[in-house]
Design brief:
Radius of gyration: 44 Å
Protein name: Chromosome segregation protein SMC
InterPro entries: JetA
Strand order of the largest sheet: 1-3-2
Pfam families: JetA (PF18982)
Helix content: 55-70%
Shape: elongated
Distance between the termini: 122 Å
Organism: Candidatus Eisenbergiella merdigallinarum
Structural class: mainly alpha
Strand content: under 5%
Largest sheet: 3 strands, antiparallel
Order of helices and strands: HHHHHHHHHHHHHHHHEHHEE
Oligomer: single chain
C-alpha cells in the first residue's frame, strides 16, 4: 500500500503555501511544548502560537486556506485559524475532549516524524557524524558477542538491521563530504579580492565543519583500527550461530521462505563487507585527492588575486629569458634599473628578553650541597675501563709509534723541520714522542738541539727523533 493512502490529502499543503515558514515554526513549537507536559490541550497550543505570533518577524500573507490568517487579524484569531488548519491537514489529531473538558491538540505521529526528519537534515550539527556511525557499528558488534547480550535475542532486528542503517548513513555522510569539497571549490573560484579570502577562512562554517571532521578521521589514529575491528567482528558474526538465527527471525518477521530470507541476509552481509573493505577506502582516497586539488586551487587563486590576476611566475620567466639574450653591457644596465625599482627593508623589533630585569637570587636560601656517594675500588676501575674504551687515547704510544714509522719510512732519524708540523695534531705528536722517549717499549728516542723552531702550528724546541739502537 502506498504511504499516500495512509495520509491526509492535505498533509503536505502547509509546506507549499505562502505562510509555510510560519506553519513550520508553529508546528515545531507545538512539538516541543508537547514534550514538556503530559497532554497538550488546545488552550496550551493556542497560547504557544499567540506568543510566537506576537514576536513573529514574518509577514502574514492573506490566503484562502479555509480559515484566513493575515496581519489584519489579532494574534488570537490567527492562532485559532492555524490550529484549525493543522487539524484539517492531519498535523493535529481529530478533536477529542480531555479530562479538563478542553479539546486535546496532540501532534500526529506522522507529523512528528516528518518535522523531526526535516530538522535532522537541515539543522543538525554534522560535525563528527562519520565517526559516530563508525563507533556505533563497533559498539553494536561488540555487544552482540557479550555474555547474556540482549541483542542476541533478536539478532536480525537488534544487530544486522542497525548495522545496515549506520552503513547507509555513513555512505550519505561521505557523499556530504564530497559535495562539501565541491561547494568550497566553487566558492573559492568566485572570490575576487583578498578580503573575500580572509572572510571565507574566518566565517565559513561549512569549511570549519568539513575540515574538523576530516582531520579527526585522518589524524586521530583511531578510525583505521576501528574499521579493522569491525571487519573482523563481521566475519566472526557470519560464522557464528547468530547468523542462522538471523535467517529464522527474518522468516518470521517478513513471512518469507528460507531461501529468500537467506538471500536477503547474505546480501546485507555482502553490502557491509563491500563497504568496509572497499568503498570506505575508495571514498576516503577520493576525498584526499580532492583536498589536494582544493589546496592547489586555493593557493593558485590566492596568488592570482594578490597579483592582480597576473601570473608573476610566467612574467618572471619571460624577464629572465630576455636578460639571457641581451649583451653584457645592456644586461648590467637592465639589472641596475631593476634594482632601483625594488626596495628591501629590514625591520626588527626588541623582544621582551632584551629589557627583562634579571631576578635576584634569594640570599636566605640555604646552599644545597651535592651528595657524595662512595664508590668501591672495583666500581671505580670498571667506570675507568668503560671511559677509556668509549674514548680511546688519540695520542697513545701505539698511535705515536705508527705516526713516526710512516714519517721515517726506512730512515734512522728525522728533525722537527722535516716532520712538517702543519697542524696542531702534528705538533702534539712531536710532544708525545718527547714524553714517550724514555719509556720501555717505545722504539724512538729524542735528542735536543739548541734553539727553537717556528712551525705553522707552534714554536717547538729543536729536536731530532731517531730510532733506538736495537742492541739496547
Amino acid at each position: 500500500m502506498s504511504f499516500f493512502e495512509s495520509l491526509n490529502d492535505k498533509f503536505f499543503n502547509p509546506f507549499c503555501c505562502r505562510n509555510r515558514a510560519i506553519y513550520f515554526d508553529g508546528i515545531s513549537l507545538l512539538i516541543e511544548k508537547s514534550k514538556e507536559i503530559p497532554v497538550l490541550y488546545e488552550t496550551d497550543a493556542r497560547n504557544t502560537l499567540i506568543l510566537y505570533l506576537q514576536n513573529c518577524t514574518y509577514s502574514l500573507e492573506t490566503e484562502n486556506i479555509g480559515e484566513e490568517i493575515g496581519n489584519g487579524r489579532t494574534p488570537q484569531e490567527n492562532a485559532s485559524a492555524i490550529l484549525r488548519y493543522f487539524r484539517a491537514c492531519g498535523w493535529i489529531t481529530p478533536q477529542e475532549i480531555g479530562r479538563s473538558g478542553d479539546n486535546i491538540a496532540s501532534v500526529s505521529a506522522y507529523c512528528r516524524k516528518l518535522i523531526d526528519a526535516v530538522h535532522k537534515i537541515f539543522d543538525r550539527d554534522a560535525n563528527g557524524a562519520i565517526t559516530n556511525h563508525i563507533f556505533s557499528m563497533y559498539e553494536i558488534l561488540g555487544s552482540a558477542f557479550g555474555r547474556d547480550s540482549a541483542r542476541a535475542i533478536r539478532p536480525y532486528q537488534s544487530i544486522l538491521s542497525p548495522l545496515i542503517e549506520h552503513e547507509c548513513d555513513l555512505k550519505n555522510e561521505l557523499l556530504i563530504l564530497k559535495d562539501s569539497i565541491r561547494e568550497i571549490m566553487r566558492a573559492v573560484m568566485r572570490m575576487a579580492d583578498a578580503n573575500s579570502f580572509g572572510q571565507y577562512l574566518i566565517k565559513d562554517e561549512l569549511l570549519s565543519r568539513f575540515f574538523n571532521d576530516y582531520f579527526f578521521i585522518k589524524k586521530s589514529g583511531l578510525i583505521p583500527s576501528y574499521i579493522s575491528e569491525i571487519d573482523r567482528m563481521l566475519r566472526k558474526l557470519r560464522r557464528s550461530e547468530l547468523y542462522d538465527r538471523m535467517i529464522q527471525e527474518y522468516i518470521r518477521v517478513s513471512n518469507v521462505g528460507e531461501a529468500q530470507a537467506r538471500e536477503k541476509v547474505e546480501r546485507q552481509f555482502g553490502e557491509l563487507d563491500s563497504f568496509i573493505n572497499l568503498e570506505y577506502d575508495r571514498e576516503m582516497n577520493y576525498i584526499d585527492r580532492k583536498i589536494n586539488t582544493y589546496y592547489n586551487l586555493y593557493s593558485t587563486r590566492m596568488m592570482m588575486v594578490l597579483s592582480g590576476n597576473t601570473n608573476l611566475e610566467h612574467q618572471l620567466n619571460r624577464l629572465l629569458l630576455f636578460l639571457k639574450d641581451m649583451d653584457g653591457e645592456d644586461r648590467r644596465e637592465a639589472i641596475d634599473r631593476l634594482s632601483q625599482a625594488h626596495r628591501l627593508q629590514s625591520i626588527g623589533y626588541v623582544g621582551r628578553k632584551s629589557f627583562e630585569r634579571r631576578r635576584k637570587r634569594n640570599p636566605n636560601l640555604k646552599n644545597a650541597g651535592l651528595l657524595a656517594d662512595d664508590l668501591t675500588q672495583e666500581e671505580k676501575q670498571r667506570l675507568t675501563d668503560e671511559l677509556l674504551a668509549e674514548t680511546p687515547d688519540r695520542y697513545s704510544m701505539d698511535n705515536v709509534e705508527r705516526h713516526f714509522a710512516s714519517l721515517l719510512a726506512g730512515r734512522e732519524k728525522i728533525t722537527v723541520e722535516e716532520c712538517g708540523a702543519h697542524t696542531r695534531d702534528d705538533a702534539t705528536m712531536i710532544a708525545a714522542s718527547i714524553i714517550y722517549s724514555g719509556t720501555v717499549g717505545f722504539p724512538y728516542e729524542v735528542e735536543f738541539g739548541e734553539g727553537m723552531v717556528e712551525t705553522e702550528a707552534a714554536r717547538i724546541s729543536r729536536v731530532t727523533i731517531k730510532r733506538k739502537d736495537r742492541t739496547e
